[in-house]
């Protein structure tokens, strides 16, 4: 392990089969590593152990259970790095080194470790008044040590940007709804766009009205806070059109409207704009990385509240695409804002569209809190998205939209209704969006309702916002670089 500099802490994996074969460890560190490996506790799933060393230029050794060597992939490596850094939260640590001997190629190892460090550095307690309870002291240096000494600076830079983008989503999703209204979210997008040289436009309710966005605007009627329709444009390739548009649900608070939610857990609906945050962060990351792709981000942002002017169950509105929609349930509002976002993206020349939303509780019932559901058409584009998720190390699963699901959302009085009832709820929600994807352009929908938030703390992540889908969408967009058809 040539090139390892003195550091406050060194993070190493421990496999079920035994020690990682890491060459060049100082003798005292190797001895401590071997002693830890004999401790039965560290062999338990998801366990980690911190040893104080003060030898060999390394003050602490952090050993993290990495499972079976054959299962060690980019996501497992990322979690090892994150768990190792999180073990140091309450200690005086300014520098960390992470080393893998895992069978991963150097590029993948560097990416996993860098992103894992960023993931570990996010603290959800940003509003606590005691500084010691709010922040992990900033790291002055991070070493990623791999077997090959060739330069991997570009990969580190890429992973650094992606890690920042994931934490951007987590920060926005974690911000209380009284501090992140649609107008504040638009201001955040403007500031991020200026930083990354992304063109940002913000349409107010009058402009949205002129464009015929009645479906989007219908959700905002119960709130005193005005809606905002946020558009981010990045032209990394140049020329016209966009290889990819990401349309994200931007409901900054969702009470359910007139179809009021159960109060239990409603406080988490501050994060119902996570899809919108994903759209903003993805375009920002592509611009910061200088990706040779044109990307469009669309965020229909509004609150969904009850009120005297609120849309009522049974009302009929007309979408930007010209479809009449019977509103059966005002808590099925995310799809109402998304369809106008999809129509706008298609009119702006998007060749492919991905919608991202905390859309349905039904996807949580189907897949639990560990996988994002993926819908779409045609099958090869859905396959592209799933492939990108595997390369990025995010768990996603393909879901169906059948003719029977489409029948469930047929309305007796309008073109379509916004819910088909409880059976197959995630599928009928996707079918509703699908009905607004025109011209046969490829479309995929990511239902992140199960993956946007964690109710329990783990070794690699605090409870709270998780920032899903950014890594996958960045990977997908990169694969479309240079104007791929």
How many independent structural domains? 2
CATH class call of the largest domain = Alpha Beta
In DSSP terms, counting alpha (H) and pi (I) runs of 4 or more, how many helices? 14
The name of the CATH architecture of the largest domain is 3-Layer(aba) Sandwich
Radius of gyration: 23 Å
Give the number of DSSP strands. 20
Task: Give the amount of beta strand, in percent.
Answer: 15-25%
- The CATH topology name of the largest domain reads Aminopeptidase
Q: Tell me about the biggest sheet? A: 9 strands, mixed
Structural class: alpha/beta
What does this structure look like?
- This protein is an alpha/beta fold.
- The chain folds into two domains: 115 residues, 3-Layer(aba) Sandwich (Leucine Aminopeptidase, subunit E, domain 1); 319 residues, Aminopeptidase (3-Layer(aba) Sandwich), CATH 3.40.630.10.
- 34% of the residues lie in helices and 21% in strands.
- The chain is built from 14 helices and 20 strands.
- The strands form four sheets. Strands 7, 8, 9, 10, 11, 14, 15, 16 and 18 form a nine-stranded mixed β-sheet that branches.
- A hairpin with a 2-residue loop joins strand 3 and strand 4.
- Helix 4 runs antiparallel to helix 8, helix 7 packs antiparallel against helix 9 and helix 8 packs across helix 14.
- The longest helix is centred in the middle third of the chain and has 22 residues.
- The radius of gyration is 23 Å and the shape is elongated.
- The model has no long low-confidence stretch (mean pLDDT 92).
């Amino acid at each position: 392990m040539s090139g390892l500099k003195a550091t406050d802490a060194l993070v190493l994996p421990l496999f079920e089969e035994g020690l990682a074969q890491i060459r060049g460890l100082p003798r005292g560190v190797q001895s401590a590593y071997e002693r830890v490996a004999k401790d039965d506790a560290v062999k338990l799933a998801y366990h980690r152990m911190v040893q104080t060393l003060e030898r060999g230029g390394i003050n602490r050794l952090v050993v993290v259970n990495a499972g079976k060597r054959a299962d060690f992939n980019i996501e497992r490596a990322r979690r090892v790095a994150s768990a190792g850094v999180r073990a140091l939260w309450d200690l005086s640590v300014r520098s960390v080194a992470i080393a893998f001997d895992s069978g991963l190629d150097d590029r993948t190892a560097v990416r996993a470790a860098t992103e894992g460090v960023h993931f570990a550095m996010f603290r959800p307690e940003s509003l606590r008044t005691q500084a010691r309870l709010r922040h992990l002291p900033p790291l002055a240096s991070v070493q990623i040590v791999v077997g090959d000494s060739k330069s991997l600076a570009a990969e580190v830079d890429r992973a650094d940007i992606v890690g920042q983008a994931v934490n951007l989503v987590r920060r926005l999703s974690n911000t209380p709804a009284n501090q992140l209204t649609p107008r504040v979210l638009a201001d955040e997008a403007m500031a991020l766009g200026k930083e990354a040289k992304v063109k940002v436009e913000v349409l107010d309710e009058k402009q949205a009205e002129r464009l015929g966005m009645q479906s989007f605007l219908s959700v905002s009627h119960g709130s005193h806070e005005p809606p905002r329709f946020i558009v981010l444009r990045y032209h990394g390739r140049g020329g016209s059109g966009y290889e990819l548009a990401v349309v994200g649900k931007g409901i900054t608070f969702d009470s359910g409207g007139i179809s009021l939610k159960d109060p239990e857990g409603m406080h988490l609906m501050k994060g119902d704009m996570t899809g919108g945050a994903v759209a903003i962060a993805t375009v920002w990351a592509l611009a910061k990385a200088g990706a040779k792709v044109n990307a469009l981000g669309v965020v229909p942002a509004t609150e969904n509240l009850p009120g005297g002017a609120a849309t009522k169950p049974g009302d009929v509105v007309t979408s930007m695409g010209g479809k009449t929609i019977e509103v059966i349930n005002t808590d099925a509002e995310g799809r109402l804002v998304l369809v106008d976002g999809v129509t706008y993206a298609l009119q702006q020349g998007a060749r492919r569209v991905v919608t991202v939303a905390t859309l349905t509780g039904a996807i949580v019932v189907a897949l639990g809190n560990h996988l994002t559901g993926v819908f779409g058409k045609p099958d090869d584009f859905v396959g592209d998205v799933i492939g990108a998720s595997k390369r990025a190390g995010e768990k996603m699963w393909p879901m169906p939209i059948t003719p029977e699901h489409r029948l469930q959302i047929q309305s007796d009085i309008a073109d379509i209704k916004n819910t088909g009832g409880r059976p197959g709820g995630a599928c009928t929600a996707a079918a509703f969006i699908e009905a607004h994807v025109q011209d046969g352009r490829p479309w995929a929908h990511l239902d992140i309702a199960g993956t946007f938030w964690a109710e329990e703390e783990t070794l690699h992540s605090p409870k709270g916002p998780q920032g899903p889908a950014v890594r996958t969408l960045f990977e997908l967009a990169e694969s479309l670089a240079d104007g791929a058809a």
